[in-house]
Amino acid sequence: MTSPYRWALTALRDLGLNVFGFLLMFAGAALLGVGVRSGMEKLVGRGHLWLALVFVALAAAGFLLGYAIPPRPDDLLSHLTDAYSWHFLDLLPGVGVNGALGWQCPVDLEGGRRGAPEANS
Known about the structure:
Blueprint: H1 4-45, H2 49-68, H3 76-91, H4 97-101
Helix pairs in contact: 1-2
């Protein structure tokens, strides 16, 4: 049996890792968005409207391609980002994005395996 001190230390470590993963995912998405926007603004500022349109279309295609390619079963980062995205969208009041998309929670927090990704049967 583990001591309460060891349990609290493990819980704090897990909490810290979850907060770090959350911040890392959203910081990465924000930096990507800022990069695309600043690149487009530079092209529009120089008068290259068609090149800006192509740049945005390629960025959108790359973004969508990232979701079109199925993740490897051992790729836990994709499960983590899906779970954070689902819970973030679930927190938005009155919007109901997850229900509108029919997106089920990728992580079962109620079953016997808390926090573990659901097995694909």
